[in-house]
Specification:
Elements (H helix, E strand, L loop, with lengths): L8 E5 L3 H28 L4 H26 L5 E5 L4 H4 L8 E7 L7 H12 L8 E7 L4 H24 L6 H6 L8 H23 L10 H8 L14 E6 L14 E6 L10 H16 L4 E6 L3 E2 L4 H9 L8 E5 L18 H12 L11 E4 L31 H10 L23 H11 L3 E4 L7 E2 L6 H19 L5 H9 L1 H11 L5 H16 L11 H23 L4 H16 L1 H13 L16 H8 L13 H24 L2 H17 L1 H9 L8 H25 L1
Helix pairs in contact: 1-2, 1-18, 2-16, 2-17, 4-5, 5-7, 9-12, 14-20, 15-16, 17-19, 17-22, 17-23, 18-19, 19-20, 22-23, 22-25
The structure holds uridine-5'-diphosphate-glucose and manganese (II) ion (MN).
Length: about 725
């Protein structure tokens, strides 16, 4: 935009857009051809039950793959890249007119999310290069743990030195752990060493407390603190059953840092819970944060952060402001989303933890439409979006929570504290619109996706901002079981939206247009990828072992169509990766993890979702562990896949890899003895591709002896399953023919 000649942001279409559109048309023709071929085979050549069943399963697989390809393509039709110019901000908006920001940090379990890490995240955000009196940091502790509170009491003290230090030395890494762990801190001078020692002391103290599981008496310095900690020790207090606890740790208006400047507010909150009322996991925590912050500061801008996502760039709020303070550019702008990026990924990213598509490529694609979806962290919202659509404001149940209400009393005043406790109680939401029409939406384990989707359906737009220096950096799972468990939770959450009355292809398309509807459908139906992946991992192989050829011969022109469809999709996927700055090896690992997800978390997610609907099981929000085990980290850094434990989630993987290997060996022997490669080539190729992808699995089964290898039990069960599959299939064939 041009505001008095100085732009705050600019945008341009990505140069690949034209190519993407042309390629999409060609590829659609190929898909139509393929489906025609299947139907033709089905009607003409499927004379037996077996051939009918096989053709049907291939048809279903390819229909699902085609649908998913269409949804993926909708991200490629209108990608745009943006530039922001935060240096121009103050030419347009005076610093004193910057809007206030309420920052929310969620944590849920002091043993999976070490309080010291949460503290680091909070300190990095408090140290933003932004007027401190306009920042309030609210920490939500769903773990209801005195350990977390203790860590934050320590952090409040440390902040008084840390904030002026960052400001005076113009530090970039404002997360202490990152700063002291990097090279840059050596250059500043002796005061740094002193500060580092202080930080280490705090860290040891906090880690000590966590290890003991309680705050020991010598760490409690005054009567007020004792009373606070006693709240956690009253009889009947458990992390899932207690009344709300709110502690103002820094009252910005009253306290000054060591440099004499004002400070941001820092508020600790553990919402009330009891066993009989649902707490809605993170969405519930965020809504409580919205209300408590509404009562205390009611800033017009809200930033939500996961506890591991520390700030990597102090300019970030100003970048967000470049969009928010420029209403003509996007009149209905509801939020500015920064990508989730991670530190500590291993070189080739074996678990595809970067989620390049999810967090980078796809949002860039949606940015050219109505804007990216919300991904749970690193998102600056206008508070107003939580109270109805842009033109239809919804009233909250009490006046004080209106987004335009101005708070006049200090945050520690008795009236404010009392009301804050009241809105944080577990029964407060009964008979209100919270979670259905107000705030973050309930009903899905991926509250972020669901909330963003509902907001965009209400008419809100969004913007994707991804400066070259990552705005935030978080932790990634470093073992396969953690990675697949996380994806499984997402899969269940996504299906909860996909098969609800909000089904994106219908509901979303109606309110946002078909392309946006397809984008949202892409996520909602992620888990159904498991159907074709499972079919292609077993059927061609088992068929070949039984002498059935199910694809066109190499000399058949239809074979060329298969080659085009396969290579086209893979090559474009790889091209996208390189385009977004990744590497070939990372792409290769990403396509492997996609297959693994199809065989494991998507599949289990689908099954558990169905079980839940039949009333057999329920799923909670299993927090991803952010604790680093040294030995595990070492193996992760070497790029080894970490299995280590026996889990049913691994069985489809290991079984499929055994079946593929066996098929490849038998197939090659057959080929050498009969020279009939034309017929079996496609199936041999699929088995070979499976083997290539399964390499780390064979290694972990046979070659490795470290703790991360596949347990013998898992291998044994998979061998049995593979034999059963083969035996069962042969038996059916024998009976039917
Ligand atoms: O009952 C709960 C459960 C979780 N959390 C917090 O939610 C955040 C995300 O949890 P995590 O275990 O790290 O899940 P991830 O799968 O890594 O998170 C991704 O997926 C979630 C949806 O499943 C989103 O909420 C997140 O923002 C997104 O980063 C963490 O800060 C937790 O402390 C709560 O506050 N209360
Ligand atoms: Mn996380």
């Amino acid at each position: 935009m041009a505001n008095m000649g100085v732009p705050l942001h600019t945008s341009k279409h990505m140069s690949c857009m034209g190519f993407n559109r042309v390629f999409a048309i060609i590829y659609i023709c190929a898909i139509v051809g393929l489906i025609y071929h299947h139907i033709h085979t089905l009607l003409r050549h499927s004379t037996t039950f077996i051939s009918l069943a096989i053709t049907m399963s291939l048809l279903i697989s390819d229909l699902i793959l085609a649908f998913m390809w269409c949804t993926t393509t909708s991200f490629r039709l209108c990608p745009i890249l943006r530039q922001v110019y935060p240096e121009n901000l103050e030419k347009i908006l005076h610093k004193k007119d910057f809007p206030a920001i309420d920052i929310f940090i969620c944590t849920a379990d002091p043993y999976k999310e070490p309080p010291m890490n949460v503290v680091n995240t909070a300190l990095s955000l408090m140290a933003y290069d932004y007027p401190p009196e306009k920042i309030s940091v609210y920490v939500s502790d769903d773990g209801g743990s005195e350990l977390t509170l203790f860590a934050f009491m320590e952090a409040a003290n440390f902040a008084k030195i840390w904030l002026p230090f960052c400001r005076d030395n113009n530090v970039m890494d404002r997360c202490p752990e990152a700063y002291f762990g990097s090279e840059s801190h050596g250059k500043v001078g002796p005061e740094t060493e002193e500060l580092k020692a202080m930080y280490e002391t705090m860290k040891i103290k906090v880690e000590n407390v966590v290890e003991r599981g309680e705050v020991c008496p010598d760490y409690i310095t005054n009567e007020q603190q004792r009373q606070t900690f006693n709240k956690y020790r009253t009889p009947g207090f458990t992390h899932s059953c207690h009344s709300s606890i709110i502690q103002v740790l820094i009252e910005g208006a009253k306290e000054k840092d060591k440099g004499g400047q004002s400070m941001p507010n820092l508020v600790y909150l553990s919402r009330g819970k009891n066993k009989n009322s649902p707490h809605h996991f993170k969405a519930g925590a965020l809504n409580t944060l919205l209300r408590v912050s509404g009562i205390m500061t009611n800033a017009p801008i809200v930033l939500t952060q996961d506890c591991d996502m520390y700030s990597n760039d102090p300019q970030t709020p100003k970048r967000a402001l470049c969009f928010i303070s420029d209403p003509p550019a996007r009149p209905q702008l509801g939020y500015v989303q920064f990508p989730q990026r991670y530190h500590g990924l291993n070189k080739d990213d074996i678990y595809g933890g970067e989620f390049l598509r999810l967090f980078l490529a796809n949002p860039v694609g949606m940015d050219g439409l109505q804007g990216p979806s919300y991904v749970g962290s690193g998102c600056f919202f206008r508070r107003r979006v939580f109270f109805g659509g842009p033109t239809s404001m919804l009233q909250p149940e009490i006046q004080e929570l209106r987004p335009d209400c101005v708070v006049e009393k200090p945050i520690t005043s008795e009236a404010i504290i009392e009301l804050a406790h009241h809105v944080a109680e577990c029964n407060y939401e009964n008979n209100t619109k919270w979670g259905s029409q107000l705030g973050f939406r309930y009903g899905s384990l991926v509250e972020d996706y669901f909330t963003g989707y509902r907001l965009q359906c209400e008419g809100w737009e969004s913007v994707f901002c991804h400066p070259s220096r990552s705005a935030f950096l978080g932790d990634v799972p470093i073992s396969l079981i953690d990675a697949v468990s996380q994806t499984k939770r997402w899969a269940i959450g996504l299906l909860e939206v996909g098969f609800s009355k909000y089904i994106p292809v219908v509901f979303g398309s109606r309110y946002m247009g078909h392309i946006m509807g397809l984008c949202y459908a892409h996520y909602a139906f992620w888990p159904i990828w498991s159907i074709p992946i499972v079919i292609y991992s077993f059927i061609p192989q088992i068929a070949l072992l039984n002498g059935l050829y199910i694809f066109p011969e190499v000399t058949d022109p239809w074979f060329l169509l298969y080659v085009f469809v396969f290579l086209g999709a893979y090559a474009q996927d790889c091209y996208d990766f390189i385009l977004f700055g990744s590497t070939f090896k990372r792409w290769w690992n990403d396509q492997r993890i996609w297959l693994i997800r199809g065989l494991s978390p998507y599949l289990f997610g689908l099954i558990e979702y169905i079980a839940k609907h039949l009333g057999i099981a329920t799923q909670g929000f299993n927090v991803t562990s952010k604790v680093q085990d040294n030995e595990q980290s070492k193996r992760y850094d070497q790029g080894l896949m970490e299995f280590g434990v026996h889990s049913p989630m691994f069985l489809p993987l290991t079984t499929a890899s055994i079946v593929s290997l066996f098929t490849l060996i038998i197939g090659i022997i057959q080929m050498l003895s009969m020279w009939e490669v034309e017929k079996s080539f496609a199936q041999l190729f699929i088995a070979g591709f499976g083997v290539l992808n399964s390499w780390p699995i064979y290694e972990a089964m046979i070659l490795r002896s470290d703790k991360g290898r596949i347990p013998v039990k898992t291998t044994m069960i998979s061998i049995c399953l593979a034999s059963l599959l083969y035996g069962g299939a042969s038996l059916i064939l024998y009976i039917m023919c």
